[in-house]
Amino acid sequence: MSNVQPLTNEINQTTEKRETKTKKERVFDFSAFKTRHIAVHLSYVGIGYCGFASSTLNEANLTNYQKLQNDNTIEYYLFQSLFKTKLINSKEDCKYSRCGRTDKDVSGFGQVIDLWVRSSLKTDIIDYTQHDGDYDYCRMINSTLPVDIRCLGWCGVPDDFNSRFSCLSRTYHYYFDPSGYDVEAMKQAAQYFVGEHDFTNFCKKDPAVDHCNRKVLSFEIEPVTHLSRFVVKGTAFLWHQVRYMVGALFLVGSGTDPKTIKDLLDVNNFTKPDFFKYAPAYPLVLFKCEYKEVDFVCDSSNVKLLGDLVDSYKELEIKCLMRKQLVEMALTQKMGEGKVVKDQMELMKKKKSELKPKKITKND
């Protein structure tokens, strides 16, 4: 029995040496691969996430996903996937950039990023238009992402491409229930936003931004089944700008004079009133980022990707139906002293907030 413990220790030491040797042998040699510049089309349902941009990426020499701090952002999970799949060696080397920063609970169906990743191509100079023969980047990235964050496509891009500064326009969708709103008045008021204006009264002040002039290319309201959506297209947007514009249109839809929008765009004579609030985040979607000559592709993973999206949609559809039936059941219950509440279904058409018309005061 006295020899059992020393023998066990010897076996453990031998095992540890083998594991250490194995780990050393598994060090990934990035120098054996070429790299190429690609753009990636990302989609994500942002509800429940703390925005797109991660504060943990400020450290330029990040080389391992284990060094990332989980701040529950889209970028955290994205870089976790990029490190795990060995597509990048470090945050600094990949020269990462993003088209836009979406806030907490805001979704993005057309978000675009660009970065340098390893390639399976062996040619000395990689033609950025070549896709055949290289990795299935969508499959690799999606393999370690949460199901509500998906890579929909990728493409090679020139060296000087930048997903932020090369973007020609950005389109946002904002979904809402039109019941109880004067939609025609809202459509009229929305046209005051079109053009180049100082949007100081329609944003949250960002110390890093030196001016608030932005150009809105179009602003429409469209029906979507029994709901509606705002469709706003512009070259760039300020912090909370879309949500402030939508909040103002909700006021107009509740009885405020449409010309109030025109007044608030006159920043020399009118300031943002205290009652003026921006709209909630969850119905907002960065729907499209437009570029010149960018054609995204998705390889063999496309069939599985579509299957995942359909399954996710069916699950949400079932949950929505369950909630609807729960509401219908609750509305049929007796209230008070046995009195049946009549026309309770009208409550489902009532506005979510009581936005009262207010008077906009002119600066002295």
From TrEMBL:
It is an enzyme of class 5 (isomerase). The keyword Ion transport does not apply. Residues 1-13 have a biased composition (Polar residues). Its EC number is 5.4.99.12. It catalyses: uridine(38/39/40) in tRNA = pseudouridine(38/39/40) in tRNA. InterPro entries: PsdUridine_synth_cat_dom_sf, PsdUridine_synth_TruA, PsdUridine_synth_TruA_a/b_dom, PsdUridine_synth_TruA_C, TruA/RsuA/RluB/E/F_N. This is tRNA pseudouridine synthase. It comes from Entamoeba invadens IP1.
